[in-house]
Amino acid sequence: MRITHYTVCLIASAAFSMASTVAQAETVKVGVIATFSGPNAIWGKQFREAIDVYVAQHGDQAGGHKIEFIYKDVGGPNADASKAAAQELLVREGVKYLAGFDFTPNAVAVAPLTKQAKVPAIIFNAATSSINKQSDFFLRTSFTLTQLAQPAAEWAAKNGAKKVVTAVSDYNPGIDAETAFSATFEQNGGDVLKKIRMPLQTTDFAPFVQRIKNSGADTVFTFLPVGPATFAFTKAYNENGLKGAGISFLGGGETDETTLDALGDQAIGLVTAYHYSDAHNSELNKSFVAKLQELHPGSRANMASVGAYDGVELIYRMVEAAGSDGAKAVEAAKGMEWESPRGPVKMDPVSRTVVQNVYLRRVEKGADGKLFNQEFATVPNVPDLGFNP
Ligand code: PHB
To answer: Which CATH architecture has domain 146-274+359-382?
Structure first.
């Protein structure tokens, strides 16, 4: 057969279209930076198990691309380790998305790298408002302390609190919580008697709890990072007679599902303002919790789980919209809305933190003997007002 110009063209164009199909269907790697060892290892465990749930329910493909997760342990709040992990993931592994980030310093440390590489970084937890100002590539599926502390202060002012002491861990999210709570509480007619800041690494809260007891306050508002710190502080509140002395407790993550059982019945009645309870009454939450228990018996869903689950939902949608083109994917994410196990969420196009409901909850004991956070009031669609562009 004489090969005409026409057949050559056909062969060439068939080869081209095959090549471009192959190039389109790539494996998109997602680097997950979190704490998998040491006293805060619960963070990495909760993130990873929630990712397992998402993949079991939705498959390992988005927009025709295979999604592969690569995990890196940074051992706790450690900016240097987080930066090194991100560098390795970007350069050696070729990841196109970064994710995870339990502690604020770990997120802040990767801001310059996300801009240089134009790689989106999906924050599953780190909750200081200003993080998202440091790179346009940050998107947050958790919450911010400002987002929780403002509704908490409004609720306290409306429900009889007059004199409050704030007690927070002395680093960025604690300062955000203190600032937002105090300003809102004072605007609503309350007094903030003392602002106590506690070292991030301390586990001995007796001296701080004593100061709160002697302060003349009717309420303590608190923030500590979920884990050993929230557990030890709440235990100290329970065991030092503050409730008996007429000082109500108002917190956030202190009654987290991963420490609640160990706090025991003394936790019953504690009030918190938060965005997720594993007892949230929706079909989606029930299937999320059930799948987690099926895949990882004994685990309980908490805010880290839901931050990761929604983070992966967002990543899948971004990959569907833009593959591994980071800048285009960030644009596509702005304004996205979906139903989360916590309730409805929307990615705020300006702050790039989800707009979500904040729930007032009280610890109760279920018929099965388990403690849980019962939502009793909803403040709908709260944006992160701590982000000033
Ligand atoms: C944070 O470092 O931003 C952080 C850590 C733990 C929390 C909340 C915020 O529970």
So the answer is: 3-Layer(aba) Sandwich (3.40)
